[in-house]
Design goal:
The chain contains 29 helices and 23 strands. With about 750 residues, it is α/β, with parallel strands linked by helices. The radius of gyration is 28 Å and the shape is globular. It binds a DNA duplex (15 and 10 nucleotides) through helix 4, helix 9 and helix 19.
DNA sequence: TGGCCGTGACTTTTT
DNA sequence: GTCACGGCCA
């Protein structure tokens, strides 16, 4: 193919071709759903290589490992690695790219190369500690809210100092203190969080001319996928690398911007033109994915957004099926109907792997799983991090992380007494005090446990044994090579006693835990550093036309660090695997960039989509609408949208209102069916609810169910009479006279009050 | 010290 | 309905 690069353009539309063959200067590709965005990027890479640009000068950035992997694969198909100038292509996620830069220049950022990347759970515990030690004890400051404020700041590249300088009111002053304490803890543990990866890379590029010019020199061509979801930090990083040569090629769709809450700035794509004068703009409006009714329905919906660039969408694939809008009685009914629909599609000859079920919140998956399981329909849930959040896996990872980064006291604290070895809170406290008093890292105190005062003989012996194991493993890491990684992981699992601890019983859970531990060893065996990690160590000399074919040997310690990094940066999408022959269940967010023959969206109700937490402002509402749009446009041939007339949330059942988005879809594209719980009930089920509830849909339902005078029963307080009901924010407070204990105020939504019928 | 149990708190989306 | 934490008992 490469002998004649123009062949790369043959089966493309003129617009696609223009994008692919764009050579120098900034370019913005506005790519509607299904318009061949990935195709354009991969062809373009091949085109550049075919036109004499060495692949190692090309940097392609994505948001998920899955997208990066697919891009690599598809480029391989177009231009095999054996072709001259093809080696060294750098395709990576933003976060992995940044992690690598930080690893290479760790010392300049005050880090050790073995730094840990903190997971959400680690972040929370660090923030908790920060809040506690900053004396912010009054309960109003939750770690979650502080972390989100800190994350916002970091995404805007505000360091502690910058944030502090601007903090003027009580709230921001408080955040500033929590932020400062939090960063101190991260530094002490030689750790960074997700946002730091971006922030520190941006700082590295800003403050170190040599690093910046090296990257600028090497990466003459920068391509970015899903540009609408970049935040300010990512913009600065990309801009800083691409500014020297100006070859910044971005692809995205403002209508699919769904990460505003995470700091993504649609302004990056909307203002691209003015940021980069001379930008070539190419709009891809033809949809190759979906049939007419699906495209029409989605286009009708998104046209309700006021803040957008108008864009025509069209398809040549014919009208196809109308979008089915199916109303169900409740979430169980919805789940059963879903299973039935999937079964029908399968009976029609469609493969389960070509079907996906999308929902707004993860909590919805449970009832769907139950139903699919009992219907015998194979399914997988796309939750990339779920595996690594299991306790037995977290334990092993804490060992590994602690070994990779001896300063990581969060990890060390987790494992000192796991499996239980008689090292309790007191012992850990004394070790900590000893470390503090002598200005030592905690790990040092552990290895010198004999010097610590006040410990019992048993504790000294246990800690000593633990310390010896750690030192032994650590020296194995330093002396080993990368091929030993799976063996090493297995060794730690066994010798630490974690294996014995989990072998305990015979139940399904125990079996599963052991299987998971084995799975982790497999993951280590499958782990390979991304190809680009192997190539450039020193060989990345921008003047060398071709990189060495020699792969630099990697030590076991480096391999472990790479493995832990890949574990820290998995996304939900990364575990989506079409080859499993199963229906994929995932959130709407995780579905971005994917496509399926049959797509079902469930829970299309007010409060869920749009989500209650985003109904305050017009901006948030528009993002919810885009989210709905993203979901709908994942479907190639059949789109099924479902509602439940009543839904139990946190154990409380209430009537729902269909999503307002549904009424924004032009009716000619819709085929509405299903039961109307308020109409006649001869459609196969009977109404099983209290008439009081049915009369009052929505959140009023619960309050109206317990008017003053209602006799109720509470699981703890026994029988009582409702005295009054008053709204309290989004919930209702009830004052109840309990016969046994007197008057109490309860939140209706949480108290499990039962109406007692007399 | 460790494990169990009860209570209370909370519940969007994620690299 | 789920999880985390604190208190209590062995």
């Amino acid at each position: 193919m490469l002998e004649d690069p123009t062949k790369l353009l043959e089966d493309l539309t003129p617009e696609q071709g223009a994008a692919v063959s764009h050579l120098d200067g900034p370019a913005l590709v506005l790519a509607g759903p299904g318009s061949g965005k990935t195709r354009v990027i991969t062809r373009r890479i091949a085109w550049l290589v075919g036109n004499g640009i060495p692949a190692w000068q090309i940097l392609a950035l994505t948001f998920t490992n899955k997208a990066a992997g697919e891009m690599r694969e598809r480029v391989d198909e177009l231009v095999p690695e054996t072709v001259a100038g093809r080696r060294g292509l750098f395709v990576s996620t933003f976060h992995a790219f940044c992690a690598r830069q930080i690893r290479m220049h760790a010392e300049r950022l005050g880090l050790d190369a073995g730094f840990s990347i903190y997971s959400t759970a680690d972040q929370r515990s660090a923030m908790k500690e920060s809040i506690a030690s900053s004396g912010l004890e009054s309960g109003n400051w939750t770690p979650a809210s502080m972390l989100s404020a800190v994350s916002d700041a970091k995404n805007k590249l505000q360091t502690v100092e910058a944030y502090d300088a601007e903090a003027s009111d009580f709230y921001t002053r408080t955040v500033a203190r929590a932020y400062a304490g939090y960063q101190k803890i991260l530094a002490r543990n030689n750790a960074v969080d997700f946002d730091d990866l971006l922030l520190k890379t941006a700082a590295l590029l800003r403050d170190h001319d040599d690093v910046r010019s090296e990257l600028q020199e090497r990466f003459r061509y920068v391509l970015i996928d899903e540009y609408q979801d970049t935040n300010h930090a990512q913009f600065v990083i990309a801009d800083s690398i691409a500014s020297a040569h100006g070859n910044l090629f971005v692809v995205g769709d403002p209508d699919q911007s769904i990460y505003g809450w995470r700091g993504a700035d649609v302004g990056n794509i909307l203002d691209f033109e003015s940021q980069y004068p001379g930008t070539s703009i190419i709009a891809l409006g033809r949809n190759f994915r979906s049939t007419g009714h699906i495209v029409g329905a989605a286009a009708g919906l998104i046209s309700n957004n006021r803040r957008r660039k108008h864009k025509e969408l069209h398809t040549d694939l014919g009208d196809g099926e109308q979008v089915s809008l199916l109303h169900c009685r409740d979430e169980r009914h919805e789940a059963e109907q879903l299973a039935e629909q999937l079964r029908t599609a399968s009976d029609e000859g469609r493969d389960y792997r070509d079907m996906a079920v999308l929902y707004r919140v993860n909590a919805l998956s449970r009832v769907l799983e139950d139903s699919l399981r009992s219907a015998g329909i194979p399914y997988v849930i796309a939750r990339g991090t779920a595996f690594f959040e299991r306790k037995e896996i977290k334990d092993v990872l804490a060992y590994l992380r602690s070994l990779a980064n001896l300063s990581d006291e969060v990890a060390l604290g987790r494992i000192m007494n796991v499996p239980a070895r008689g090292v309790g809170k007191k012992t850990i406290e004394r070790l900590g005090r000893f470390a503090m008093q002598n200005g030592l890292p905690l790990f040092e105190a552990v290895t010198r446990v004999a010097e610590v005062d006040g410990l019992g003989a048993r504790a000294v012996r246990s800690v000593g044994t633990f310390a010896n194991s750690m030192l032994r493993w650590r020296s194995a890491l330093e002396n080993g090579h990368d091929g030993q990684l799976p063996g090493f992981v297995a060794q730690v699992i066994t010798e630490s006693g974690l294996e014995a601890m989990n072998i305990g019983g015979e139940g399904d859970e125990e079996q599963e835990r052991i299987a998971n531990l084995n799975e982790l060893v497999n993951a280590a065996a499958e782990f390979q550093p991304a190809p680009e990690q192997l190539v450039t160590e020193g060989g990345g000399d921008p003047d060398s036309p071709e990189l060495d074919d020699v792969e630099v040997p990697i030590t076991l310690l480096d391999a472990l660090r790479g493995f832990l990094e890949s574990v820290a940066l998995v996304s939900d999408q990364d575990v989506v695997d079409e080859s499993r022959g199963a229906v994929t269940l995932m959130t709407l967010h995780a579905a971005k960039g994917l496509e399926y023959e049959v797509v079902a969206m469930v829970g299309l109700e007010e409060g869920l989509l749009p989500h209650a937490r985003s109904q305050e402002g017009e901006l948030e509402l528009e993002e919810e609408r885009r989210l709905c749009y993203v979901g709908m446009t994942r479907a190639r041939r059949r789109l099924l949208m479902m509602t439940a007339a009543s839904r139990a949330v946190r154990g409380v059942r209430s009537m729902t209102v269909p999503s307002s988005f549904l009424s924004e879809i032009p009716t000619e594209h819709l085929l509405e069916s299903g039961s109307d719980p308020f109409g006649d009930a001869n459609d196969g089920y009977t109404i099983e609810y209290d008439p009081d509830v049915v009369d009052e849909p929505g959140e009023l339902g619960l309050a109206s169910r317990f008017p003053a005078g209602t006799v109720v029963r509470h699981p703890q307080f026994g029988m009582g009479t409702v005295r009054s009901i008053s709204p309290r924010g989004s919930v209702s407070a009830a004052r109840v006279d309990f016969h046994a204990i007197g008057t109490k105020t309860l939140i209706l939504e949480y108290a499990r009050l039962e109406r007692v019928v007399d």
